[in-house]
Amino acid sequence: MNNNAKIIDGHAVSKLIYNDIDIKIKMLAKKNIIPGLAVIVVGNDPASKIYVKNKIIACQKYGIFSMKQEFSEDITENELLNFIEKLNINLKIHGILVQLPLPKHINSKKIIEAINPKKDVDGFSPSNIGRLVTNDPLFIPCTPYGILKILENQNIDFKSLEIVVIGTSNIVGKPIAMLMLNKGATVTLCNSKTKNLSLHTKNADIVIVATGKINTINGSMIKQGAIVVDVGINRNKEGKICGDVEFTSASQIASAITPVPGGVGPMTIAMLIYNTVRSAEIQQNLNN
Ligand SMILES: Nc1nc2c(c(=O)[nH]1)N[C@@H](CN(C=O)c1ccc(C(=O)N[C@@H](CCC(=O)O)C(=O)O)cc1)CN2
User: Fold this and answer.
1) Is 154 an active-site residue?
2) Hey, which CATH number is domain 32-119, 3.20.20.140, 3.90.780.10, 3.40.50.10860, 3.10.129.10?
3) How close is the Cα of 157 to the center of ligand 1, in Å?
4) What is the dihedral of CA 74, 77, 79, 80, to 10 degrees?
5) 141-265 domain in CATH 3.40.50.720?
6) Residue 216 assigned ligand-binding role
7) Which residue has the higher pLDDT, 155 or 287?
8) Which of these, 41, 101, 103, 210, could form a disulfide with 231 (CB 3.0-4.6 Å)?
9) Is residue 76 scored above 80 in pLDDT?
10) Nearest-CA neighbor of 268 among 106, 107, 99, 63?
11) Which residues line ligand 1 (CB under 6 A)?
């Protein structure tokens, strides 16, 4: 039995992305362009506040202009839409993101659709998702993009690999399935109604788990030598952060596994900064 799965260090992979970002920012600076990101957060969700804080810190660290707008829980949909409209025409802002989840009285779909697709650095708008589906992406959603970069860093040739994605959210499950499909993998998408999850996961070369549920899979459900990517961020009974995968048993069977924390999470922020810089590059080319 292999109990030596390689633990994939998301911070180390993110450093490679930040090196790329540094080069791009210096090139833009030569043309007097400073990439700008606007982050909107509504309400008091503690996790959202931490993620937004970390996004702003990353902007500051890499010389990106950032604007954080906090709105109280009771903001109306129209007020939010009006604010986005102003950001859409603000020349200092190349990327706009609305931290999710939004309060229930606000229609997230409507809000995301209001963001100019050319500034939609989260890649969630119908136009950007459509471009991903047709393999002509403009902005790839940050978490799936981070997973792709992690896997590419393992020198994986996706062609003909069996990949199982568990979880069908619009922000992770569906876009990562599409990305993998575009890379030539054979992809199976499973959901909470999937009858015999093991039947699928045991056959997979790569299992990507994004359900938001602790212990969605364990070592007995994966193939020897599989690669396991854990997207979940949960708190266990002891209050410790953990993923969707039962790490101890899975790491005895897998050849490589992403930990939580320190796996996919840091890549989400790196790819957001990357998308923001790309957005500045694209807008600069359009204006010349
Ligand atoms: N507009 C968006 N909303 C949300 C997104 C998103 O991509 N765009 N994704 C998630 C939250 N998220 C970013 O916003 C995010 C989640 C987790 C991490 C991260 O670095 N996690 C760390 C652990 C963090 C901790 O200790 O609490 C890790 O895994 O190492 C970054 C970003 C939902 N909303």
Assistant:
1) no
2) 3.40.50.10860
3) 27
4) 100
5) yes
6) no
7) 155
8) 210
9) yes
10) 99
11) 50-51, 97-100, 122, 142-143, 171, 233, 241, 260-262, 265-266, 268-269
Is 55 a known active-site residue? yes
pLDDT band at 284 (very low <50, low <70, confident <90, very high): confident
Q: Are 189 and 195 in contact (CB under 8 A)?
A: no
- Kindly tell me the burial class for residue 249, based on how many C-beta atoms sit within 10 Å of its own C-beta (0-12, 13-18, 19 or more): middle
Distance in Å, CA 51 to ligand 1 centroid:
5
Tens digits of residue pLDDT in 109-129: 999 999 999 999 999 999 999
What ligand 1 atom has the least distance to the C-alpha of 241? 26
pLDDT tops 90 at residue 80: yes
Spell out the domain ranges in the chain. 32-119, 141-265
Q: Is the ipTM of this complex over 0.95?
A: yes
Tell me the β-bridge partners of 100.
none
Model confidence pTM above 0.95: yes
* From 120, 122, 230, 244, the catalytic residue: 122
Active site residue 9: no
